[in-house]
């Protein structure tokens, strides 16, 4: 039954009424309804409840691959790579676009205009960072706020940053959520890809059954990494399995092709054409959704601090740093703090300069800390690089400009009153007749003391918005692994094209037989327990009840017991039913269309499924 429900609805929400109307072959709506309680208990179905109490049911995202496996998808023929022309190679990846954006926000902050949008100058800088382009994603026709201000690639990156909880949104601007950022950068690239792909499946694919089937079919294991596959052949096989109609709309086909293009931009798929101009694709890197399978109870695992800065970098005598692809994002985060980034690719290139080290010092990374990190995480630091860092360390930090809080009084009486408060000794320092210096660490204490004598200053205009700061991440404080992001908060993102299950309250109610078949207690038990000859008026009530429940009836015709799914009743006193007649309960064909009157059968009974 779950296969039929999946074929009919994919992972989209449906009402029980929709399920009742989805009979096939000898399987009637009542048969499908009767399966709902057990499917809910097993987790193969889930339900949500709208505010006004209406319930919707759906197949959870992590169950879909299991159902596809049961359906045994048609094996796809691998294409000869020598007959393929590559048109679009997979880019570096969405994970890297997100990383570069986070690093930029850490360095520069992200203040907003009075309209709530990012300043134009910052937008320009952020757009320049991204590998993802408009051509990659425009075909997805995404909807999001301020569409006139944000190009689609940046909107996607910001959407992911928000939905994963990596930033704190404040009225004047956005700041990094250090706790979530530490957990995110502690993931491997494979784990990041799994989380990101799951978000895309849940929110970016439209609520269209053929499209939903298509996006999930692509991720099945039979489509191997590195092998070319023909898109038209894949769609034909899906039609033969009953997953999509024989003729798709041009809009559906266009979106499917755009999805492949977007997956290329996100760093996962190559696209090309064959000699006969057919679209082909191959997985370059395939996200492993089992890493974020929320159906499995996976406990959060702590990552050892020693493994947080994974990978080895290569420090060159010319002060360039070669960064292989296996270097962890936590280590890359540190490199972004004190190096110039020259290129980001399979092998990334950074450069140490005096200026970059000075900027690193402003971010809390002293030349000594930088040298220690390079010695720990590299194949070795050349002597000239080590000596330069030591020299820069001696030159930097010998003088310091500190920011202090100035408390200014409008008259001498207020200043003298403040000077006399013993609780402020050591917290403020008088530097003139009307002026005091307030210790940065004790601003709250000073405010509280001044409030008590009714001399509290107004709040500072920048209060409530953290200053731009490139945080030092402490892996030992919070590393939850990929499970920290298995239930990313979709409500925090701003792109939504797909199913809306996350907007509603989860519902754990298991409907009983009476709830599925209302009025069951009011019918005579003999209608169900035995077949017999009924008066025409009673027979009509039985047939009407079967139609209401989308149930079957048993008929004795010519000495043979047959099943019928009644679909309608015509006539008054002399009435007849129209429906489908079956000679075999296991026959999944459509049955024989018939019109029968009470004179056509000898006995009648109502058939209800077992639960």
Could you describe the 3D structure shown?
It is a single chain. The chain has 611 residues and is an alpha+beta fold. Among the domains are: 1-72, Arc Repressor Mutant, subunit A, CATH 1.10.10; 314-397, no CATH class; 405-453, no CATH class; 520-606, SH3 type barrels (Roll), CATH 2.30.30. It is built from 22 helices and 23 strands. The protein has a 5-stranded antiparallel β-sheet with strand order 3-8-10-9-4. The protein has a 5-stranded antiparallel β-sheet with strand order 22-21-20-19-23. α16 (367-377) packs antiparallel against α17 (383-395). The protein starts with a helix and ends with a strand. Residues 295-306 and 461-467 have low confidence and may be disordered.
According to CATH, what is the class of the domain at 520-606? Mainly Beta
Give the number of helices.
22
Give the averaged pLDDT, no decimals. Answer: 88
Described by the principal axes of the CA atoms, the overall outline is elongated
Low-confidence stretches: 295-306, 461-467
Output the keywords.
23 strands; Arc Repressor Mutant, subunit A; alpha+beta; 22 helices
List the helices and strands and how they pair.
Layout: H1 2-9, H2 16-20, H3 29-42, E1 46-49, E2 55-58, H4 64-71, E3 78-79, E4 84-88, H5 94-108, E5 110-111, H6 120-129, H7 134-137, H8 152-163, E6 167-169, E7 173-176, H9 178-185, H10 189-203, H11 209-217, E8 228-230, H12 231-240, H13 250-265, E9 269-274, E10 279-283, E11 314-315, E12 320-323, H14 329-338, E13 340-343, E14 348-351, H15 354-362, H16 367-377, H17 383-395, E15 405-408, H18 412-419, E16 428-430, E17 435-438, H19 443-452, E18 505-507, H20 513-516, H21 526-529, H22 536-549, E19 552-557, E20 560-570, E21 576-582, E22 592-596, E23 603-607
Antiparallel strand pairs: 1-2, 1-18, 3-8, 4-9, 5-7, 6-7, 8-10, 9-10, 11-12, 12-14, 13-14, 15-17, 16-17, 19-20, 19-23, 20-21, 21-22
Helix pairs in contact: 5-8, 11-13, 16-17
């Amino acid at each position: 039954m779950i296969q039929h429900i999946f074929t009919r609805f994919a992972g989209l929400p449906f009402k029980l009424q929709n399920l009742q109307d989805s009979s096939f072959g000898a399987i009637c709506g009542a048969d499908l309804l009767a399966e709902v309680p057990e499917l809910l208990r097993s987790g193969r179905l889930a339900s949500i409840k709208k505010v006004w109490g209406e319930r919707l049911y759906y197949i959870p995202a992590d169950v879909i691959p299991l159902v596809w496996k049961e359906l045994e998808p048609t094996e796809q023929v691998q294409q000869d790579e020598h007959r393929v022309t590559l048109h679009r190679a997979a880019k570096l990846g969405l994970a890297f676009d997100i990383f570069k954006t986070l690093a930029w926000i850490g360095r520069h902050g992200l203040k907003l205009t009075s309209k709530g949008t990012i300043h134009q100058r910052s937008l320009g800088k952020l757009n320049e960072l991204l590998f993802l382009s408009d051509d990659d994603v425009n075909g997805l026709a995404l909807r999001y706020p301020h569409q006139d201000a944000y190009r689609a690639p940046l909107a996607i990156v910001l959407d992911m940053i928000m939905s994963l909880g990596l930033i704190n949104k404040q009225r004047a601007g956005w700041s990094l959520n250090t706790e979530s950022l530490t957990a995110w950068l502690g993931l491997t690239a494979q784990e990041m890809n799994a989380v990101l792909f799951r978000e895309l499946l849940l929110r970016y694919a439209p609520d269209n059954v053929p499209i939903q089937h298509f996006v999930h079919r692509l991720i099945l294991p039979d489509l191997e990494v590195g092998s070319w596959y023909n898109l038209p052949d894949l769609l034909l096989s899906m039609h033969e399995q009953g997953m999509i109609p024989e003729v798709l709309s041009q809009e559906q086909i266009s979106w499917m092709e755009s999805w492949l293009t977007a997956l290329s931009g996100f760093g996962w798929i190559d696209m090309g054409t064959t000699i006969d101009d057919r679209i082909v694709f191959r997985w370059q890197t395939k996200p492993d959704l089992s890493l974020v399978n929320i159906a499995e109870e996976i406990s959060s695992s702590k990552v050892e601090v020693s493994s947080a800065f994974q990978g080895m970098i290569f420090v060159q005598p010319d002060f360039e740093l070669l960064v292989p692809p296996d270097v962890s994002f936590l280590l890359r985060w540190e490199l972004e703090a004190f190096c110039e980034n020259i290129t980001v690719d399979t092998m990334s290139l950074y450069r140490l300069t005096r200026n970059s080290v000075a900027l690193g010092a402003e971010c809390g990374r002293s030349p000594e800390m930088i040298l220690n990190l390079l010695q720990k995480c590299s194949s070795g630091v050349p002597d000239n690089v080590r000596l330069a860092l030591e020299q820069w360390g001696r030159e930097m930090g010998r003088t310091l400009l500190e920011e202090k809080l100035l408390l200014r009084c409008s008259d001498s009486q207020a200043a003298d009153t403040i000077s006399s408060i013993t609780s402020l000794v050591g917290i403020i320092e008088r530097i003139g007749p009307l002026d005091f210096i307030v210790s940065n660490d004790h601003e709250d204490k000073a405010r509280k003391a001044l409030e008590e004598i009714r001399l509290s200053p107004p709040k500072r205009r920048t209060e409530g918005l953290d200053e731009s700061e490139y945080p030092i991440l402490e892996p030992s404080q919070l590393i939850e692994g990929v499970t920290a992001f298995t239930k990313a908060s979709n409500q925090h993102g701003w792109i939504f094209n797909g199913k809306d299950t996350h907007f509603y309250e989860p519902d754990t109610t298991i409907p009983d037989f009476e709830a599925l078949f209302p009025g069951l207690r009011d019918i005579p038990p003999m209608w169900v327990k035995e077949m017999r000859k009924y008066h025409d008026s009673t027979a009509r009530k039985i047939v009407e009840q079967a139609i209401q429940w989308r149930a079957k009836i048993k008929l004795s015709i010519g000495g043979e017991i047959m099943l019928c799914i009644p679909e309608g009743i015509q006539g008054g006193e002399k009435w007849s039913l129209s429906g489908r007649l079956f000679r075999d309960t296991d026959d999944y064909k459509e049955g024989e269309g018939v019109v029968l009157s009470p004179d056509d059968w000898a006995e009648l009974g109502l058939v209800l499924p077992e639960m």
